[in-house]
Design goal:
Elements lengths: L24 H12 L18 H7 L8 H7 L15 H12 L36 H12 L10 H13 L5 H9 L5 H10 L2 H14 L17 H12 L4 H10 L8 H6 L16 H21 L18 H9 L22 E3 L3 H15 L31 H11 L3 H23 L2 E3 L9 E4 L7 E5 L17 H8 L7 H14 L20 H14 L2 H9 L12 H6 L16 H12 L19 H5 L29 H4 L19 H9 L1 H17 L7
Helix pairs in contact: 1-4, 5-20, 6-7, 6-8, 9-10, 11-18, 15-17, 19-20, 19-21, 23-27
């Protein structure tokens, strides 16, 4: 790979992302402005018209002229009030750095193009460095990393030992620890491609899709209940299983995207494509008696815009709901133009009432192939059961081939009851047999409809006129808007047509963000921290990536094929990922977060994998893939106290030991064992979980029935499988 100048064989010039002696905007100046200045001097309407978020904006404002910069004068207090106003002045060192940067030409080597914020410019494949004495390098990722480490006077860490490597890799790719047999097989495999064979085996595992689905469910705010009042059940687990299957099948990410954002608008959509659109029906639904339907509908629309833009674009569009974005170049019109794509759903804004289920129109039946075939057959049979048993008109009752022989005292006067009487007493034996058969068909149909899950999906069956809401208030509609993509992210015409056109734009070369955002999220999955530290925010307020060259190289490669497994394989087979994670004193001081990647990943497992690992080691984990969510051990009475006397009916048998992905997720009361280890409530889109250390975590491991049971079973397993001990 080192002989190749770029991934497509074309040398595309991009200056090295190495901190030079000349100050550089992205690495040296932008962090100072972000810490002290951008709160006022960025966005659509920056203070005094001065935008400090890009070199182009500063040149346009005329504040970075070498030798006589008004910016340096104001920062130094030599001209007018010293900036920043109302805050501590910059340090002399920072002011000198900015002055030097301006005097030496206001260089921005990291981008090589300063017309806009780096994330809003399409990624370009950087030339892969050709380095001397680079035997450590395994993939192009390593070439970029090694170049930077050398520039920083650092060296990569040695490769982790083999037991560590297979444990790390197995947890990364399937969310389970390796079995003793798998460890032994890897330790004894002396072939050069032993590691690659483990990668390929894990990528083909049915548990791969389950592991990759976990962060996607967080982003999609997936739960098994609607989130308000009685917090009724839904059937969105069918969408969850679709995600797992799509990831296992390595569905191309552009197809994965289009199906979820607009599968219903594809020509002749399949049941799976309709189910995929449940992504944007996973939001909370209100069923409170006093709720205002249109208000709740607008809340759902806001949720779809915010979730979609965060998940795919990594931008904080919610800030533009009430006014133009203060920091990023997104207008209120941009926000409501995005909302217009989602404003044609035939929905009331409220959840259905009168049952235990928290679902709302539109929805579809989404059962197995056999169930759906039976449903179609029974529906056709039911439609054909009009046998002439129409209700009896009370006024014509006197004319009825059977009332003449009936005792008038026994005849009901109500028309409906009279009809029932007729069906019970007035039919011939042959007609009654037909009628009983018809009733049996209808009962079978009703029973099947009750058993088949009903999944909420998207639809454009109710076109509406969309408006900007003044100050974000749905009761004060202002200008009419039509579906359009944000102007700053769009080259050419911004009107993508309908929601399907928008979905195709999201994964098109015209959009500079999607590939970068997804690459960053997968990097975060395997290193604990993304190349961009804030996966939900690639805007002006975010920290620039330490390795933009790695990010852009991977983004261009990913966008070329949208092959998720290939992307993951490139990351986990790199020497960068295979490093030992031991942190030296020097590393702790110079790079405590491991942004420079001089060591391997080191971070706590997600809540679900903590539990799954324990179940796996104890030998009781049930590895079945898919199906309805299960109710595992939970503190007694927890639901009763918080959900109007709803009782938690715990499952039994194998269901208690399913993977945590399948644990029933009630929004008002998330699974306590998972919440204690920082699993989110799933009320809103989350791309990065918080990290806490609390006594509750230790108490959970010491007292939760799941862990006590697992400890006992692990002890039994050790006694049976551990062999003889020195004390035996």
């Amino acid at each position: 790979c080192l002989a190749t100048t770029s991934i497509f064989g074309i040398a595309l010039a991009l200056p090295p992302q190495v901190k030079p002696s000349t100050p550089d905007f992205t690495h040296d100046i932008a962090p100072v402005f972000k810490a002290h200045c951008l709160k006022c001097h960025s966005g659509i309407s920056p203070a005094a018209g001065l935008d400090l978020s890009s070199v182009a904006a500063m040149r346009k404002a005329g504040v970075i002229a070498p030798g006589k910069s008004i910016l340096v004068q104001r920062l130094s207090g030599l001209s007018g009030a010293q900036m920043p106003m109302g805050a501590a002045p910059l340090t002399p060192g920072d002011i000198k750095l900015i002055a030097t940067w301006i005097d030496e030409g206001a260089v921005d080597l990291a981008k090589g193009r300063s017309a806009a914020h780096w994330a809003y410019v399409a990624p370009v494949a950087p030339t892969i460095p050709l380095l001397k004495n680079a035997s450590w390098v395994r993939t192009p990722i390593d070439s970029f990393v090694l170049r930077r480490l050398r520039a920083e006077g650092l060296k990569p860490s040695p490769e982790a030992d083999r037991p560590t490597l297979i444990r790390r890799l197995t947890l990364d790719l399937i969310g389970l620890p390796p079995t003793p047999a798998e460890v032994n097989s890897f330790l004894t495999d002396k072939s050069q491609n032993a590691y690659d064979k483990v990668v390929d085996r894990l990528l083909a595992s049915p548990h791969f899709g389950e592991r990759m689905a976990l962060p996607w469910l967080d982003a999609a705010r997936y739960a098994d209940s609607n989130g308000f009042q009685m917090d009724g059940d839904n059937f969105q687990y069918v969408w969850r299983d679709w995600v797992v299957k799509a990831l296992n099948d390595n569905m191309p990410f552009d197809v994965f995207t289009i199906d979820q954002l607009a599968g219903d608008l594809l020509p002749h959509p399949t049941q799976d494509q309709l189910v995929a659109t449940a992504f944007n029906r996973n939001h909370m639904l209100n069923g409170e008696g006093g709720a205002i339907p249109e208000e709740q509908r607008s809340v759902s629309l806001f949720d779809r815009v915010d979730t979609t833009s965060t998940t795919w674009l990594g931008v904080t569009m919610a800030c533009a709901r009430c006014h133009d974005h203060k920091y990023d170049p997104f207008t209120q019109r941009d926000y409501y133009s995005l909302m217009a794509y989602f404003n044609n759903v035939p929905e009331s804004g409220l959840v259905g009432t009168g049952s235990q289920y928290g679902i709302a129109d539109p929805w579809i039946y989404a059962g197995s192939q056999g169930q759906m075939a039976d449903l179609k057959r029974l529906q056709a049979d039911a439609d054909a059961t009009d046998r002439g048993f129409e209700p009896i008109d009370k006024d014509k009752a006197a004319e009825a081939h059977w009332l003449a022989t009936a005792d008038p005292k026994t005849l009901p006067t109500d028309a409906t009851k009279l009809h029932t009487f007729y069906l019970d007493h007035g039919l011939t034996s042959e007609a009654k047999s037909v009628r009983d058969a018809d009733l049996a068909v209808h009962k079978q149909l009703t029973d099947l409809q009750t058993a088949i899950p009903r999944v909420m999906v998207m639809s454009d069956a109710q076109p509406r006129v969309s408006h900007i809401f003044s100050r974000g208030n749905y009761t004060t509609p202002a200008d009419v808007v039509h579906g359009a993509t944000p102007a700053v992210l769009t080259r050419g015409v911004s009107n993508a047509g309908n929601r399907l056109g928008f979905a195709r734009w999201v994964v098109s070369p015209d959009n500079p963000l999607t590939a970068r955002v997804q690459v960053n999220r997968y990097w975060q999955l395997f290193f604990g921290l993304g190349l961009v530290k804030t996966p939900e925010n690639f805007g002006v307020q975010s920290d620039p990536p330490v390795y933009q060259d790695v990010l852009d190289w991977l983004a261009v490669k990913f966008e070329h094929s949208w092959d998720v497994k290939a992307l993951i394989r490139t990351i986990v087979t790199s020497a960068t990922h295979r490093q030992a994670s031991k942190r030296t004193k020097e590393m702790a001081q110079r790079d405590p977060e491991n942004r420079l990647l001089a060591r391997g990943p080191r971070y706590r497992l997600p809540a679900e994998i903590v539990r799954d690992e324990v179940l796996s080691m104890s030998g009781v984990l049930v590895e079945k893939v898919g199906g309805p969510s299960v109710k595992v051990y939970q503190p007694e009475g927890l639901w009763t106290d918080l959900t109007q006397n709803q009782s938690y009916v715990q499952d039994h048998g194998d269901k208690l030991y399913r993977k945590s992905l399948y644990t029933y997720w009630k929004r008002t009361i998330p699974p306590p064992s998972l919440s204690n280890f920082d699993a989110p409530s799933r009320e809103s889109c989350i791309l990065q979980r918080g990290l806490t250390n609390s006594p509750l975590q230790a108490l959970d491991l010491m007292n939760d029935i799941s862990y006590l049971e697992a400890a006992r079973l692990l002890g039994e397993r050790m006694m049976k499988e551990g062999g003889a001990t020195a004390d035996a």
